[in-house]
Amino acid sequence: MNKPRICATIVNNDPEAISRVEALVDLFEVRIDLIGDGWQELAKRLEKPWIATNRTVEEGGKWAGNEARRIEGLLQAVELGAALVDVEFRTKNLKNIVPLVKKRVKCILSFHDVEKTPSLDEMKEIVERQLKSGADICKVVTTAKEFEDNLAVLQLISEFPGDKILAFAMGPVGQVSRVLCPLVGGDFTYGSIEKGRESAPGQITVQELIKIYGMMKI
Fold first, then answer.
1. Range of the domain at 14
2. For residue 29, what is the domain's CATH number?
3. Distance CA 166, CA 52 (A)
4. Active site residues per annotation
5. Could you give the CA distance from residue 135 to residue 158 in angstroms, rounded to a whole number?
């Protein structure tokens, strides 16, 4: 089995904390909506590939500005050297934005359900629509209410063996799906740089992920 890939999520401007994990991870996620002013300078200093994300409130983020400015931030990230851009699948004018992103970099199309985990059939339909819309990576993130929700999101990955999928559930009940996502075929998983700096409920730290994978001899 390949070593699970880990993406460290950056939620604030703390160069020291970032440098402590840089050698441990495969890529970073720059959360423009959480970092705020100064994200550009931070992104320029990263030595690993990075994902630009500017998450809306409806999808669990903090972006409170207007939509045009939000997309402007993502396109600015392309100019600054982002390797991937995460665009919410429910974004207005998606069909215009995806080609702009894909001219230069890879595009993650993401779907977040902050209340529940939809049925497997509903999630499969979302992924099929993401692929049709040009996603290089399809991301489906739900909220786990019961243990079975972990099984549903992980099964979603196995339904699309030829495609790059990210699927896991938020919340404490969903933590196991975060660990297992890259072990069942998911492209990578996300970890926080340190405790108290999570970008979503149930996110575990990079160090915890590495410790678990180490115990599994992966």
1. 6-215
2. 3.20.20.70
3. 16
4. 112, 139
5. 17
Query: Based on the number of CB atoms within 10 Å of its own CB, is 58 exposed (0-12), middle (13-18) or buried (19 or more)?
Result: exposed
* 62 in any annotated domain: yes
Reported as half-sphere exposure (CB side, CA atoms, 13 A), residue 142 has a value of 27
Helices (H), the chain: 15-22, 32-35, 39-45, 67-80, 94-102, 120-132, 148-158, 175-180, 206-215
Question: For the chain, what is the domain count?
Answer: 1
d(CA 204, CA 197): 10
Pairing label, strands 106-112, 137-143: parallel
Residue 1 lies in a domain: no
Distance CA 186, CA 37 (A): 32
User: What distance in Å separates the CA atoms of residue 101 and residue 85, rounded to the nearest whole number?
Assistant: 7
Q: Is 86 a domain residue? A: yes
The model's confidence at residue 65, banded by pLDDT at 50, 70 and 90, is confident
Closest CA to 169 of 195, 196, 194, 190: 190
pLDDT digits (tens, 9 = 90+) for 23-39: 999 999 999 999 999 99
